[in-house]
């Protein structure tokens, strides 16, 4: 921690990290007596009457099979019958009860019986800014605190990733990628949680607090969180190379919105004429600039029970025709990971 890169944030960073460490836990899973995964997690709720704490972690904790090609192609498998252990800060362990997992966001909730109240985190409701200083936290298999200093970076995802992530930019450009950090909190210099670590080994990314809080809100209301599957993937114009943005502006007088990358075969979007290269400009009348904004709009406007039918108004600029239209997409809310077929 005492390095030149951290000199300017050493005092505030130390205070923030040590405060967050009090709600940071180790979690592990096994299946049929064989170790499965070791990750991190953190307390998010406490039930005084039942003496039960709720832990948020990654659903990778119980994943037995990754998607063979891309998360958008599906194929992940989860062992909901896996044995889960929560490793407490006093060196003891407790049985964790898996109460819910959601494949699209790869989040999971665990109930843990405790004799005394636990420290809960504070969330920053606003997402981090580009290049903001942050810390990624985790605990290794000996419960030692793992600290990774980085800056937040907004990027368009690759075809292999979901589009609700922010990325870590380490000072040397090479992060300390370790599976132990999966499911651990990401904090700002004030010690507030700004996200949860998501697959640091492959993409060095985290799910921002705005989406986590939307998920928590739905969980408290319905005991699940579902989202509409619109059958499209996107890239934000503002995160493209400047030359690409300039070309879009010169050709179409557009410099904001989401460029459609894929349209799922047979989806309502395809039936209504959306094609690759078209630009999504608004959702339910509200302008949209980033995929994280887009995801939060969907979750905020579609907070009803899983399986319910929803209608979403989408403003589209059709690049081939050079004309705008507003389409009404009808879909059902689903707790499953969205699959795009070609």
TrEMBL record:
Q: Which species is the source of this protein?
A: Aegilops tauschii subsp. strangulata
Which regions span the lipid bilayer? Answer: none
Q: Which residues form the PDZ domain?
A: 228-318
Q: Which domain of life is it from?
A: Eukaryota
Return the InterPro entries for the record: PDZ, PDZ_6, PDZ_sf, Peptidase_S1_PA
Its recorded name reads PDZ domain-containing protein
Q: Name one Pfam family in it.
A: PDZ_6
